[in-house]
Amino acid sequence: MSNLPAVRVKESQTSHEIIQLVSFELASEEYGIDVLMVREIIRIPGITKMPNTPNYVEGIINLRGTVVPIVSLRRRFGLAEQAVDRQSRILVMEVGDSLTGFVVDAVAEVIRITPTDIQPSPPIVQGNAAQEGITGVINHDNRLLVVLDLNRMFNDEEKAVFKSLE
User: Fold this and answer.
1) Distance of alpha carbon 104 from alpha carbon 106, whole angstroms
2) In the beta sheet, which residues pair with residue 52?
């Protein structure tokens, strides 16, 4: 039930190990997440608001009988709010030991890279707690793509909040 386009192979592959990333957009910037972390990509259904949750938690949804907390990555990253449109999607992933959905502006494509394509984050963002989930950047089709590890973006207390919403 995925809306992902065909896989594109990056031409300058020097290693045999290939990493596949799902690329998505937030505020006209492009991000990537390991495709193996993504359980599914869905359109945005009705979201039930939950009281006393962090401001970046949109609420919860029922996904085929499973309650899934929904996180706004725009709010988590401190970006301006934008209305949900036809391109908006939820990336359903396992964070810690629970399923969590992440609202993104659009899902672009699946790209294939080698580990050597990932460059370290600039020193200005390293060590910043809010940027802990950034694992590096890649130059993809002459534009920078920020590579994320959403498991590292949330501390144990935040993961416990997600688990309590199930």
Assistant:
1) 6
2) none
CATH number at residue 142: 2.40.50.180
Tens of pLDDT along the chain (166 residues) come to 445 544 444 444 444 789 999 999 999 899 999 999 999 999 999 999 999 888 999 999 999 999 999 999 999 888 898 888 999 999 999 887 789 999 999 999 999 999 899 898 777 655 544 567 888 899 888 888 999 987 788 777 877 777 777 7
- Write out the H or E segment, with its range, that includes residue 109: strand 106-113
Residue showing tokens 């045999």: 16
Structure token digits, residue 68: 């899934």
Nearest to 39 by CA among 60, 68, 16: 68
152 assigned to some structural domain: yes
Amino acid in position 113: I
Mention every residue, 6+ apart, whose C-beta is less than 8 A from residue 101: 42, 61, 63, 68, 69, 70, 71, 90, 91, 92, 93
pTM, 2 dp? 0.81
